[in-house]
Amino acid sequence: MEGEVGMRVAVLGLGSMGAGMAASLRQTGHTVTGFDVVDASRNAFAAGGGTAATSAAEAAKGADAVVSVVVNASQTEALLFGEGGVAAAMQAGAVFVSCATMDPDAARSLAARLEASGQHYLDAPMSGGPARAATGELTVMASGSAAAFGQARPVLDAIAAKVYELGDAAGAGAAFKMINQLLAGVHIAAACEAISFAAKQGLDLKRVYEVITASAGNSWMFENRVPHVLDGDYAPKSAVEIFVKDLGIVQDMARRERFPVPVSAAALQMFLAAAGAGMGREDDASLARVYASLSGATLPKSDGTKE
Amino acid sequence: MEGEVGMRVAVLGLGSMGAGMAASLRQTGHTVTGFDVVDASRNAFAAGGGTAATSAAEAAKGADAVVSVVVNASQTEALLFGEGGVAAAMQAGAVFVSCATMDPDAARSLAARLEASGQHYLDAPMSGGPARAATGELTVMASGSAAAFGQARPVLDAIAAKVYELGDAAGAGAAFKMINQLLAGVHIAAACEAISFAAKQGLDLKRVYEVITASAGNSWMFENRVPHVLDGDYAPKSAVEIFVKDLGIVQDMARRERFPVPVSAAALQMFLAAAGAGMGREDDASLARVYASLSGATLPKSDGTKE
């Protein structure tokens, strides 16, 4: 039923998240045009039946909603206001749905600039991986004007199982997301510190996983990431560099606000160590390998033996 | 049916945990004798219908099982082998069930000394608070010889909903517990860092709690401790000093094993700061008050206003 009942939506950024969201939007009946600066991503999207544009501005032209699935604030700014930026191409009354995790100040600044020219900006960072993007079951932490929410509603309905409406201006969505990322990053580092320390002591790691996930030491991230360590599988489900970026934003925000964050600062050092050791694009459970290499702890290998 | 079908059990340490365990043991039909060096605890136990002994050794004499509910390794050592210690009073074949959280090396040492004189030692640190102690629903992370487990079984059945059997010698139970405490301590500090940082940004903290507990940033501790901050209630459900102790043990173990633990080291500093600021005996969610006092963040007060 594509195109019969829906909006015209541009999806900018066709990596695993953007491609999944585009698919969800098409399945819900929207007319989707996609663009990615990477040829392979654009071609894969077209090969899957999507309509690929030759530029971001072309995709955005005439769209009711433009969904930005790029990585950070500077990419979002370039996409909106750089050479060939979409702000100039978007029609009046259209909404820009910004999904990147960024400093709330950056979200406020981008929104103010776009709103000045008569378009709407929804600050809408997401939670949930590619699998949930593909099934339209993301969680969105959103804030923006009533007009932005109103215009973006059909998009949100298509891509998200849960939309938190967190305020009437850009910035609140970003701020909530950063609180989540602070915790998530610390919990990944703590999980890797703990499971490697258990390995150093020669404990049965599968038993550690069983006991901890049923105890007060559990976290969403411990439960989700430690299986990668148990399997010796560091193929990137979420890469080390993501939290180098996100805990970096936390540090920048906290420094600006004169707020000490010693625990997340320590966690960031471990993500930096993993990236510095060459694992930046591998799974973030790779922090366990850093602890192991620093201590002589023995972790499981992917073939079931120990490395 | 007290005393009709059960064992003779001594419970040494009648604080909120020990008193609850003694109650569970009595309800299950065991004959319980209790002792505490604190007169008030001993008198409260007697007033509640318990049989209080005049010394630990008197309580242990003739007991089939001696349950030690003291705070740490040094108290456990003093209880067993100090002046008037129970090791000399325990009959051959009786089991000493040690519930304190301690360094695995200390557990191994205590077990070896007690086993040398013909008694059994079960390394049995617990998880779960006073409420679950009172209903016999603790979680126990236990290790010890088959004889120790066999002799302690009726006690474990009475006090625990779940018993993890983690090895055939003392030390493994303690090691698993320390992995849990590493994570739990980091997660408390991270929860306080995050919720205070949210307060500094002026976010709606109840909404933060709602969003985070449904997101990847969640932890058992975030879910459990942040409500104390939202209520401005720092009456001690678990005191700051507990994790000064337990993360201190983690640091001691890690230093000895040449294992770097930067994340839990940073968390310990925040527990030390809270204790140093005079909150050692208050709830461990007090770390949020340390962050607030260092940054000018405004947290909820117990009367519903902000402090």
Structure characterization notes:
The structure is a homodimer of 307-residue chains. With 307 residues, chain A is α/β, with parallel strands linked by helices. The model of chain A has no long low-confidence stretch (mean pLDDT 96). Chain A contains 13 helices and 9 strands. In chain A, the strands form 2 sheets. The first copy, chain A, has a 6-stranded parallel beta sheet with strand order 3-2-1-4-5-6, with helices on both faces. The interface between A and B is large, with 66 and 65 residues. Chains A, B: This is L-threonate dehydrogenase. Chains A, B: Belongs to the HIBADH-related family. L-threonate dehydrogenase subfamily. Chains A, B: One of its GO terms (molecular function) is oxidoreductase activity, acting on the CH-OH group of donors, NAD or NADP as acceptor.
Secondary structure blueprint with pairings:
The structure is a homodimer of 307-residue chains.
Chain A: E1 8-12, H1 16-27, E2 31-35, H2 39-47, E3 51-52, H3 56-60, E4 65-68, H4 73-81, E5 95-98, H5 104-115, E6 120-123, E7 126-127, H6 130-134, E8 138-142, H7 146-159, E9 160-165, H8 172-200, H9 205-213, H10 220-231, H11 240-256, H12 262-279, H13 287-295
Helix pairs in contact in A: 4-5, 8-10, 8-11, 8-12, 8-13, 9-10, 11-12
In summary, what is this structure?
The structure is a homodimer of 307-residue chains. Chain A is an alpha/beta fold and 307 residues long. Chain A has 13 helices and nine strands.
